[in-house]
Amino acid sequence: MASKPKPLQMALHKVIMVGSGGVGKSALTLQFMYDEFVEDYEPTKADSYRKKVVLDGEEVQIDILDTAGQEDYAAIRDNYFRSGEGFLCVFSITEQESFAATADFREQILRVKNDENIPFLLVGNKCDLFDKRQVTIETATAKAGEWNVPYVETSAKTRQNVDKVFFDLMCEIRDRKKEETAKPDGKKNKKTKKEGKRKKKCVIL
Amino acid sequence: MTAIRHTLQKDVFLPNDERLLGVVHVSKAGKKKKASFLCAAATTEKPVQVSIVNVKKSDKGDTYKRRQTWQLRELKLVDGKDDTKLCQRYLIKKRPDFVNVNPQLLEEAVQVGELTRTMPQGAEDVVDEEYQVLTAQEESDLEKLISQCDFAVSNAEAFTEQLSKDLSMLDGANIHSIMASEEQVKTLMKLLEVSETEINRIEKRLERYEGLLEGVREQMEQMKGKDTLIQMQNTNYKKLLSTLDTLVGQLDLSPGHVKALHEGDLSNPSHILDCTSAAEALQQAMGVQLHPGLCKMQAVREQQKMFEKLRSSFARRLATHLNSVFVQQGHDMGETLSHHTLEPTLPKHYSAHRDLMPYADLMLWLKGADITSFHQLAQVYTSNLKRLYDREIKEFFEAAKSILGSKPSAVDSKKFGKLMGSTESLGKSSGSKLRSSSLLDIADHKGSNPDITDRAKFERVLNSIMSELEPVCMVEQDFIIKFFHLSTDSTATDLGSDEEDQPEEGVVDADGAMFSKGHTERQAEKQVSSEVRRMMSDLFGMLEPELHNFINHADKMDPYNSMYMLVKISAVVMGMEEKDAGSYLATTLATSVVIVKRNFDKLIQAKIQSIEDIKVPKNKRCGILPFVASFEEFAELAETVFKGSERRADLDKAYGRMVRTIFDNVERVGLEHQKTPQDVVLFENFHHLNAVFARLKITCLETEKKEARHKYKQHLNAYVINWLGHPMEKLNHFFEGIEARVAQGVKAEEVGYQLAFSKQELRKVIKEYPMKEVKKGLDSLYKKVEKHLCEEENLNQVVWRSMQEEFISQYKHFEDLIRRCYPESGITLEFTIDDILKFFSDIAQSH
């Protein structure tokens, strides 16, 4: 069986989890990957996951790079930001600082990718802890609006919207790739097509 | 006088406990005035003592004195101046003489005395009371007497005379009457004599009567004897009549029945019914328990002979008819065999069974009437239907195999789509929809993967084989039990006893042995008798070899098929456990499970063998080892196949063995691989294994999952440390040397005074690594990492991040060592942390 040709043509979307330490990037990843929620906190350095999923009837692979929230030197992130095709920028709604930090991440990503329209989702995690909320939906939505990206609140614990954020992001990545292959000159249409984004809505299967 | 009496009572007698009875005024003849009283008194206490007391009244006053007292018994003479009733009453024996007393009084006293004497002697108290009671009566008597003789008181003599006159008159009358009674006695005597003679005469007559009666009794007894005889005869006649009646009734067979037995059309259902009832009637008539004596009757013997003839002729007719029916059926159904290509189907024998069922009662009759014909018929049925079943089963499995054999080509894909539609419903009916549909989902997405579609197809074919086999076998088994009236409740213990007239013991034994191998726990349960099993194994003789053949064929096509079969056939056997334990199909499938399990074990063994046999690729990057990928595929499939199966334990055992072998061989390949560093082989493969275990959530491999994760991290770190040494190799060595000195006890600030580690040496080494060199080193390291690692596992970023981190901390460590060992020397590395970070950013941008 092993000798059979691998399904090479399967699309591969590379997703990077970013955000401050302890906001639940790994928890979201593990919930999405294995349907499990790990209570104990163990800071991640970096880990890679791969999963086959069906996106709008098409089987694709998603690569998730779960990264460290705490890095001594931000430049270390340059390399893996560079490798990412889409970003889930996560903060905890119970922690104002983590929300503030998203701006730095966003800035670094845009700089490294040199692409204003890079697929990007602002994710407010831990929405099950609403009684400890520090970041209002309005604030976060306003920020997302400013960046022209979607804002989604999730709970890795209750699995609320977990699939949604990954699938939404993959849809954006896929659509971006289609746009690029449609342009034979291959030049990326940076910093221009803000209004062209997110016209297709995804269907989660 | 009363006053005196009262005074006397009170003053004289009461103090002495006496009662004054009477008082008489007496006086002496001479003297005048002196008053004396003679009193009669009785003691109040018992026994009563009566005394006569002379009481004198004293001269002065009214006091009385006792002068003299005489006891009544001392009285000798009573002068009859007054009545003497006293002594009459109280002195009966010793009566004083009475003078001057009225004789009537005396007589009455005598009467009273006699009266008193009749009282019990010595009971004087009673007497006393009698006296008290009688007083009133006596008084009245006396008064009467006195009133009769008024003169008595005045003239006692006249009265006496009168009395004696009366007496003599009475005497005379008495004598006269005595004289008269003699005559009467004489007449009485005469009468007595007469009656005596009369009595004698009557006695004689009675004797004669008795003699007469004696004779009558004898006659009566004779008559009684005769009567019983008559009655006996009567009942005997009645009994004989009823016996004959029942005999005739029992042995009579209605002409209709005889006709039916002779000419009933056995192919016409209503005639079959007639024949059945006729046969039953015949059976009943023949089965009647007759007295042995009755059997000697000519008529009975003839009738029985007739029955015998009738029975054998009908049995022959029936056997011939059914014989041809069986042959016909075997032939006809063979003709109409349908040739499906899409789904393997087994023709159902419902209609044949329906045609035969009307004969079931006749078969029961035949079993009783003619056991040899019955067995012959069963034999004919078996051999004819066996031929049919053989053919059907063979074609059934051929069809199944041909479906499996046809590889899905471009042309076939349309047909395949249609097939999947039908499988949906099939999956539903066999209760395994969940599994089959989940597989089909995958098949949908991976339409290009022939493995998956083949397996989905195999599962579908297997399901339909099982769902086809079950009804056919169970229906046939039910049919032969009902039709041939085989016992169903015999247990394993009487396996042998049933087999006297069954020549093929060997078959049954072999069958039973295999059966017990698979399912020993069934022994105690209700079992289908060996009789049924023998017949079924005759009929379906082809099933077992064909099934085994198919199992091995499927295994050869794709060893993974054995997993489906292990799960599916086990589930079918388990499912039948309750209702059809020990049915022929159950036992046959149970033996198949043994074979399938053996194939499954072979599959696992082959997998393990192939892991152990894997050759290390020479000139290629190692990446994920084929057996790791293959295990993932196997586990993924196995998890869906074994979901909820009772066979889970078998899979877990297989997992354990396989994973152990995989771990060992990952390490072996790591060591042997030429191109890829050992650590890379290890961390990539263990990372992959960890992900597989986590994704499939194989609970029995929890420890292995942790072990894989641990090994992944351990070897990742080892790789990073090991390969970071390369970009600034000399610098590295230099500082390692310093560290070694410090470790040996050299003071940090004195290391610089050693020749090998002087400031000049340090400067020389540092000079060798200007910014450009470092950047080049990092660039080539990055390329090395990219070359070592496979794209598939996507660990480049993880490794590179780790290397960046490690490189910075190394840089800091060097700076720290310079500061400590060469203080105030002002020596620094040729590049700063910012330079490093810029290199990193540049590397990031460069690809």
Core attributes:
heterodimer; A: 205 residues; alpha/beta; Rossmann fold; 6-stranded mixed beta sheet; globular; disordered N terminus; B: 847 residues; mainly alpha; 4-stranded antiparallel beta sheet; two-stranded parallel ribbon; 6 strands; 5% strand
Give the topology.
The complex is a heterodimer of chains A (205) and B (847).
Chain A: E1 11-19, H1 25-34, E2 46-55, E3 58-67, H2 75-83, E4 86-92, H3 96-113, E5 120-125, H4 137-147, E6 151-153, H5 162-182
Parallel strand pairs in A: 1-3, 1-4, 4-5, 5-6
Antiparallel strand pairs in A: 2-3
Chain B: H1 2-13, E1 18-26, E2 36-43, E3 50-57, E4 64-71, E5 77-79, H2 85-90, E6 97-99, H3 103-118, H4 124-148, H5 151-154, H6 156-251, H7 255-263, H8 269-287, H9 292-295, H10 298-335, H11 350-356, H12 360-369, H13 371-405, H14 412-430, H15 433-445, H16 450-483, H17 505-518, H18 530-539, H19 543-557, H20 561-580, H21 584-613, H22 626-641, H23 648-672, H24 678-696, H25 702-724, H26 729-744, H27 759-767, H28 771-788, H29 796-821, H30 833-845
Parallel strand pairs in B: 5-6
Antiparallel strand pairs in B: 1-2, 2-3, 3-4
Explain what you see.
The complex is a heterodimer of chains A (205) and B (847). Chain A is of the alpha/beta class and 205 residues long. Chain A has five helices and six strands; from the N terminus they run E-H-E-E-H-E-H-E-H-E-H. Chain A has one domain (12-180): Rossmann fold, CATH 3.40.50. In chain A, helix 2 (75-83) crosses helix 3. Chain A is globular and about 45 Å long. Chain A starts with 10 loop residues before the first strand and ends in a 23-residue tail after the last helix. With 847 residues, chain B is mainly alpha-helical. Chain B has helices at 2-13, 85-90, 103-118, 124-148, 151-154, 156-251, 255-263, 269-287, 292-295, 298-335, 350-356, 360-369, 371-405, 412-430, 433-445, 450-483, 505-518, 530-539, 543-557, 561-580, 584-613, 626-641, 648-672, 678-696, 702-724, 729-744, 759-767, 771-788, 796-821, 833-845; strands at 18-26, 36-43, 50-57, 64-71, 77-79, 97-99. In chain B, the strands form two sheets. In chain B, strands 1-2-3-4 form a four-stranded antiparallel sheet. Chain B has a two-stranded parallel ribbon with strand order 5-6. In chain B, strand 3 and strand 4 form a beta hairpin. In chain B, helix 12 (360-369) packs across helix 13 (371-405), helix 14 (412-430) packs antiparallel against helix 15 (433-445) and helix 28 crosses helix 30. The longest helix of chain B has 96 residues, at 156-251. Chains A and B meet through strand 2, strand 3 and helix 2 of A and helix 22, helix 24, helix 29 and helix 30 of B. Chain B: Residues 31-105 form the Exocyst complex component Sec3 PIP2-binding N-terminal domain. Chain B: InterPro entries: Sec3-PIP2_bind (IPR028258), Sec3_C (IPR048628), Sec3_CC (IPR019160). Chain B: This is Exocyst complex component 1-like. Chain B: One of its GO terms (molecular function) is phosphatidylinositol-4,5-bisphosphate binding.
